[in-house]
Amino acid sequence: MCGIVGYIGHREAYPIIIEGLKRLEYRGYDSAGIALFDGTDLKVSKTKGKVADLENISEKEITKTGNVGIGHTRWATHGVPNDVNSHPHTSNSGDLVIIHNGIIENYESLKQELIARGYTFKSDTDTEVLINLIEDVKKQEDVKLGKAVQIALNQVIGAYAITVFDKNKPEEIVVARLGSPLAVGIGEDEFFIASDASPFIEYTKDAIYLEDEEMAIIRFHKGIKIRKIKDDSLVDPYIQKLQLNLEEIEKGGYDHFMLKEIHEQPKAITDTYRGRLLRDQAIIKMAGVEDNMKKFLNANRIIIVACGTSWHAGLVAEYIFEDLARIPVEVEYASEFRYRNPVIREDDVLIAISQSGETADTLAAIKLAKSKGAFVFGVCNVVGSSIARETDAGAYTHAGPEIGVASTKAFTTQITVLTLMALRLSRAKGTITSSEYRRHLLELEMIPGKVEKALESDAHIRYIADIYKDASNCLYLGRGYNFPVALEGALKLKEISYIHAEGYPAAEMKHGPIALIDENMPIVVIATKKGHYEKVVSNIQEIKSRKGKIIGIVTEGDEQVKELADHVIEVPETLESLSPLLTTIPLQLLSYYIAVMLDKNVDQPRNLAKSVTVE
Ligand code: AGP
Q1: In the predicted model, what is the mean pLDDT of residues 394-411?
Q2: 589 partner at 20 to 30 Å CA-CA among 74, 142, 215, 403?
């Protein structure tokens, strides 16, 4: 995915676009570019690298004045990240300019047709094909830019969010979306365009989120017109009041967003259950579940689809739904599910989990399940996201913006929402006793305080990070509820430190990974008191006899593992089903400090983007 920013109004566009791109850099950061109309001509500056690199080169390359402009931060799909492939792209005449997020799947055939008509191409991108297609339509059909964009998009197969303008008509910007998000901020006689609202939050709280297959023509002094791309029908704009604050998208004194977001977890978890967990009345209130209780109670099974960290949260949910609510659960990678002709029945309930609400594979899995008549429930963080809109009902995690590419608070708040759901359903089904249910409510309410306590191991974790930062491989082991935590711990380490790491069910170690263990191999073992403690202790003994280095994640006061392990990190005691909310915390910090010590870009790891809006 990529980040898109645009501006048309009475202010200087350059600083708005550059600052906006910095806020969207989490979406992709292998190259960046800007196009400005400076009053007489179109100026384009673009480069491989970060927005800071763009700032440096644009200083020399362009005059930074002008009230109309578009900017882009890229996560490459077509063509390697280099200066030429960076956006914006101009048409052959040099009149039209575009930035694009998404993939044009039929770009190769469109390109051949354009080449046959005399067009030439400088880059390897699908985007350059699209802007020339728009130019070709505009000339052939003798239509205005908006119409040309519409006709061209009707020939395109794929996904896009685009922003286009014509240097001969710089009082107008045309935008469109299919499968990639696009928001328009409405100011006083000025408009902001962005992939999410963060670039314009200090200028306006009024925003329109384009729906799929919609385009908008935005004219300075004249306003905005939204149309359906397919049939040209006019759409009534729905202006939303944004709840986002500037502080929420700033680092607030932390060195990295990831560290800030790790420390935000006590508050984020509280925000997730606030108004839902009413312990005094022994009630869980979740409108999306309540309104669809019959669907859940009559469900043949629950299918959970997600990717990455969200998939790990889904695995934790599998344990808790089956354990407490006795509903069969299957957890699927969205990318596999959508392409393997799965059996889906009308009495299946599909739960889609996604922080961003924009992950392309998860969105496609939802559409597939809906087409087969299943009821689809979303667990998302980003309000108004594509997945939140596409699902039949849902529950937001209310974690606040997560900007670090490595998910942290998204994971723990997803588990919180799914735990609330499992508890509510187990109560409705009568699969949990009243005292067990109340115990869970009480323990869940105490989790934020216990996360706070787990965060106090910060200095000790930094000490351990320093010892193991040069390891080439690392194993993470856990059983039961903490098996998914082992997977998540390994993912955190590899994505930000580039150290190879594997998560495994502890007992599975004997079926292969044990061969890797020697005196150079650090092994993180989650060995909390509840659950399969004795079994995990046996696994630790097996590692010890092969001289592996053991980092145990243990319950406060544990002595047995302390004896065996090289290091232990303590977390407060809680119910086994809630333990992932605590055992995850030291693993997040361990990865963070190792990556910092290795001088890696923690918030923007190489090759990654915050949400993957292409399949
Ligand atoms: C993990 O740290 C990553 N951010 C990644 O695995 C992520 O969880 C995955 O891409 C799914 O994203 P989503 O939750 O926004 O759908």
Answers
A1: 95
A2: 74
* pLDDT tens per residue across span 1-58: 789 999 999 999 999 999 999 999 888 888 999 999 999 999 999 999 999 999 999 9
Torsion angles phi and psi, residue 96, rounded to 5: -100, 145
Catalytically annotated residue among 2, 307, 380, 474: 2
Give the separation between CA 23 and CA 197, rounded to whole angstroms. 10
Beta strand 567-571 pairing with 549-555: parallel
pLDDT tens-digit readout, 120-156: 999 999 999 999 999 999 999 999 999 999 999 999 9
Q: For residue 609, report the distance from its CA to the centre of ligand 1, in Å.
A: 9
User: Is 448 in contact with 269 (CB distance < 8 Å)?
Assistant: yes
Of 26, 195, 307, best ligand 1 pocket probe by most atoms within 8 Å of the beta carbon:
307
Residue 510 annotated in active site: no
- Does ligand 1 have an atom closer than 6 angstroms to the CB of 310? yes
**Domains and their CATH numbers in the chain:** 3-248 (3.60.20.10), 251-454 (3.40.50.10490), 456-606 (3.40.50.10490)
Annotation marks residue 307 as catalytic = no
Atom of ligand 1 nearest to the CA of 414: 14
For the record, the structure tokens of 208 come out as 């329109």
pLDDT for 448-469, tens place per residue?
999 999 999 999 999 999 999 9
